[in-house]
Amino acid sequence: MTVTTNLGxxxxxxxxxxxxxxxxxxxxxxxxxxxxxxxVLADGxxxxxxxxxxxxxxxxxxxxxxxxxxxHGEPHEIxxxxxxxxxxxxxxxxxxxxxxAIFQTAKSQPQYAGMGTTLVVALFYDNRMTVGHIGDxxxxxxxxxxxxxxTRDHSLLQDQIDSGLISKEQARFSQNKNLVTRAVGIDPxxxxxxxxxxxxxxxxxxxxxxxxxxxxxDDDIQATLxxxxxxxxxxxxxxxxxxxxxxxxxxxxxxxxxVLVDFAVPxxxxxxxxxxxx
Amino acid sequence: MAKLIMSLDNxxxxxxxxxxxxxxxxxxxHNDIQIDNLAVSGEHALIVTILKDSFLEDxxxxxxxxxxxxxxxxxxxxxxxxxxIGKYKLKYESESPGGQSSVADFEKTMVLRAPxxxxxxxxxxxxxxxxxxxxxxxxxxxxPPTPAPTAAPAKSTDKIAAIQILSGPSAGKELELVKxxxxxxxxxxxxxxxxxxxxxxxxxxxxxxxLPIVNGKSLDAQAHQLNDHDVVELAGVKMEFxxxxx
Lengths: 278, 246
Description:
The complex is a heterodimer. Chain A is α+β, with helices and mostly antiparallel strands. Chain A has helices spanning 50-72, 86-108, 156-162, 168-171, 210-213, 218-227, 232-245, 269-277, and strands spanning 11-18, 28-33, 38-45, 78-79, 84-85, 116-117, 119-125, 128-134, 138-143, 146-149, 179-180, 193-198, 204-208, 252-259. In chain A, strands 2, 3, 6, 7, 8 and 12 form a six-stranded antiparallel beta sheet that branches. In chain A, strands 1-14-13-9-10 form a five-stranded antiparallel beta sheet. Chain A has a two-stranded antiparallel sheet with strand order 4-5. In chain A, a hairpin with a 2-residue loop joins β9 (138-143) and β10 (146-149). The two termini of chain A are 16 Å apart. Chain B is mainly β. Chain B is 0% helix and 43% strand. In chain B, the strands form five sheets. Chain B has a six-stranded antiparallel beta sheet with strand order 2-1-11-10-7-8, with no helix packed on it. Chain B has a six-stranded antiparallel beta sheet with strand order 15-14-23-22-19-20, with no helix packed on it. Chain B has a five-stranded mixed beta sheet with strand order 4-3-5-6-9, with no helix packed on it. Classes of the chains: A alpha+beta, B mainly beta. At the A-B interface, α3, β11, α6 and α7 of A face β9, β12, β17 and β18 of B.
């Protein structure tokens, strides 16, 4: 029996991506599928158009592989002896595949040598969200009025903040913003940082590239989301515009996901029975 | 490479390149920068340089360390900062003072990796001695970016505008548009937002079945720039947009 959960009525998802004011092309790639509860964002790096090739491979790989896998299994199911939900294994395996694919392409085609990409991916299921990330693309959460960064960057700057070398306030003035300590496709293997969080109706999640978080301070991002939460499409557009108004030095991409209703997986025979007819 | 230009009473004494990860400043001879003056402590200050950032730290000196006239404990040096230790001034010049780098390559993201050893990139700085070296050979070469704080606060238009309500129960009320975003209207009925941007103020429809009306004309879903004395109609309430004179 295959029950493909459809989250199309549970999640409201909008996306926006823009080249910015300075760069000649957009090396960010994004994809979102409310039906399966998936959002993926990647910020590519590498000469010529290699960056967009890398981020493109990552996003295409994750979306197609996950979609396929989800047709045969539910993300909340506990898999094997590890005790972790399928979603976690899925994110780990598909991002490893994307890493291998980019690494191989870079090795076999000289024009793509050295390309890589950051990655942030969120899979929603059963009132939960599993987030995987590599590099400095971020996921934030707005819950009622509280705005928090959920992912921690894999960057030199974050390491410096963690070791107490500089404060978060000083970090805004650092010249070392552009150095990530982990990326997809640079080494034969990469470790994806994966965590699972509970979500509640009303939550708004923001996935973004550093083109947003470097150009617009967190307080302004929060103000925009709080003010425009009744119109997510406009909020996404406004965030991109703010990054561009502040100089738009990098490509800027955002994905906004709003949880509309409770979406716990029905347990017990009656609930399952009811779900069957829904 | 960043450097310090040391001067006393406006006379330049010497140039000191920050060519090591740690450069110590003090009166005692073992310091990298020795200043033989009684106002300077034996071990006075330390500058740690990591790639393009230099961090200045006062080592608990008796007379303190000033940056641009303010006492500091720890400080990220910015181009042209003036460090004062005793009567001595040390002007900090970052590696490319004002140098224009090609804009397209500006601030490209790069990957940092431990020098060798196969393992996926380890967090530098997590263990004290981990050497940090910029990226794979083929990664984009990033020219030293011009020193400029990135996340600059939104440079909004200088002219402050306001809205005055013309009709309804709150007629006469005035609202200054100082925030980047100001929402107007009744939630659930009709809401519009006025955004303050570098080149002026714009109104955009947020929610509700009806669209805002400006000077008698209904808007579409796009942002619309507001001009002085435009009359906006929202949820049946008329209001005037105008620039404040100051």
